[in-house]
């Protein structure tokens, strides 16, 4: 284990390695992940074939697992760009979740 | 190569979210673990309240007699009932719904002079607000809980091979041992870590994630609450609002049969409120003790007509989805299953604390002999992390037991005594940070753990010397055991220094 | 209830020990020689059976709703205790499990 570390210093062991891609990933995980989860939860609550109150509870209780998944996704995928691309799926989800409000807004 | 990058970047996530949030998480978990026994600690903090053998019905009658004699014109009487865990019988008037109030002697029905104290509730409140303004605190703790979830899951991914080394712990081998201990406490108690973190988030689920409520109810909490209760109008008109015409005088119904009926439906009772006592429209609201089932029944109650004693509103059964949420929240509160379950949560909570603490120490041990190459910033960071670790782990424990000492040592009549106890808590905590910065690293650990151990071991003695009353054997035995363990830690840190240095050197080569 | 929980805890601890000894490294650590493969399989089977029985005891003590939570907790703590004692006193760790059963039986008879 020790040998490996000497050869290819893993990122975790360096301090000042807060490169732009890493910073981008952090923002993607914390803020992007929350926005994605918000959209996902809204869409799920809208789509679940349950009464509104039940759908709301189920979707909201599950949301923390979704957020965890989003955070891990932001760090596990190959590049920061990909991380953002994945989280951008939140946009159509938000459209599903909030379409009545959107229609109202549009006219 | 690709695989490796994923592991690397998840390990980066684990390390840094673990470190930055580990400090606040340790504080949350330690106070949460103490909060498992909040009532028992509270009893210790209020030694003036005598133990008694009255059941809740007799105690309620005592309180009612007092209120009728002293506050005949109050609009609302509130009575907090004693129970298995706490002998306190309290009364208050007005809209105060929960907690507070003045303690009565259940035997004589007289007011008790009880010291003002932050109480066992301090640890409970600190656990979910960190003593910050409530909403801010809830958000900070929620963020830390998310970091914990992310660290747990990323930890599972990066440590996955340790499931094979399930039972492995190699003590006295420096970094290796810290890693083993971190893994053992993490992996073996993993179901508890995941459960307690997730259910903690579920308690305030609508605060943290209002998306669905925004989408389906336009953020209208009133509409949402009505939908959740499944009874649109009924609730709005009940209880809180004052009636239109003032009803004439009428005697209050007898309490004992009414309480017996409530107990039959709800299980052990926590408190009751009597609205408009002595009038025709009197209402008696009875609330159950949490913990008759897993479901968190907070806010549930049963309403009786105060004159006829008839049931006006039975407790609503939760709909399945709401029941799910309440069961999850209840799993966090651990008010069910009696004392065995409480002990299980306490020890599992300590294991969580140990996992976080060993993780924090591991971070610095891993880098201790390597930060020369990292430049001044790196060195400063690691030194800082080492110091903060001491203060967060040992210092917080010292502050907690320090609060108990302050409870006995502060003058009885001190104004805002409870506030002073909290101030002592934070001053001690701050002092431990200064101490950790000034002293050599290992000495700081040793001295703070040693002092904590001494305060724990001396606590029963302090009680005898200062108030000499109360029967706290379970609590005192527990704290003696904890003190003994901490003393052993402090002693161990002082012991094999030369051997340790040698080992570190051979490991490096 | 107390007795059922104590039984559950002891089953959990014994089960964890059997599972632990079912791993070659720990069998060697305790007995100084590797286990035969049939013994290893027997130990593992016993371990899982004991854990299942421990779960059943928890359910008996707390009921179906609370039992699983308590059961998982008992297994976790039993495993943790084992891991902490094993490197210092491997024989003691196993002796405790064995010695616990007569004590438990006596308690059952007395209670």
Task: Describe this structure in a few short sentences.
The complex is a heterotrimer of chains A (107), B (509) and C (111). By secondary structure, chain A is mainly α.
What layout of secondary structure does this protein have?
The complex is a heterotrimer of chains A (107), B (509) and C (111).
Chain A: H1 2-7, H2 20-47, H3 52-76, H4 80-87, H5 90-97, H6 99-106
Helix pairs in contact in A: 2-3, 2-4, 2-5, 3-4
Chain B: H1 2-35, H2 38-45, H3 56-70, E1 76-80, E2 89-93, E3 102-104, H4 121-129, H5 134-158, H6 175-188, H7 190-203, H8 205-208, H9 211-217, H10 221-229, H11 255-266, E4 269-275, E5 283-288, E6 302-305, E7 311-313, H12 320-333, H13 338-368, H14 375-409, H15 417-438, H16 441-466, H17 473-494, H18 497-508
Antiparallel strand pairs in B: 1-2, 1-4, 2-3, 4-5, 5-6, 6-7
Helix pairs in contact in B: 1-4, 1-5, 1-13, 1-14, 3-11, 5-7, 6-13, 7-12, 13-14, 14-15, 14-16, 15-16, 16-17
Chain C: H1 2-21, H2 24-31, H3 37-85, H4 90-110
Helix pairs in contact in C: 1-3, 1-4
Mean pLDDT of chain B: 86
Q: What is the end-to-end distance of chain C?
A: 12 Å
Radius of gyration of chain C: 14 Å
Multimerization status: heterotrimer
Count of structural domains of chain C: 1
What order do the SSEs of chain C take from the amino end to the carboxyl end, as H and E? Answer: HHHH
The largest β sheet of chain C comes out as:
none
Name the strands of the widest sheet of chain B in spatial order.
3-2-1-4-5-6-7
- Which stretches of chain C are poorly predicted, pLDDT < 50 over at least 5 residues? none
Instruction: For the record, give the distance between the C-alpha atoms at the N and C termini of chain B, rounded to a whole number.
Output: 28 Å
Query: What's the domain count of chain B?
Result: 2
Quick one: how many beta strands of chain C? 0
* Fraction of residues in H or I helices of chain C: over 70%
Beta-strand portion of chain B reads 5-15%
Helical/strand content category of chain B? alpha+beta
Bin the helical content of chain B.
55-70%
Largest interface: A-B, 46 and 55 residues
InterPro entries (chain B): PepSY-ass_TM (IPR005625)
Transmembrane segments (chain B): 12-37, 136-158, 179-208, 343-365, 386-405, 425-442, 449-466, 472-493
Protein name (chain B): PepSY domain-containing protein
Keywords (chain B): Membrane, Transmembrane, Transmembrane helix
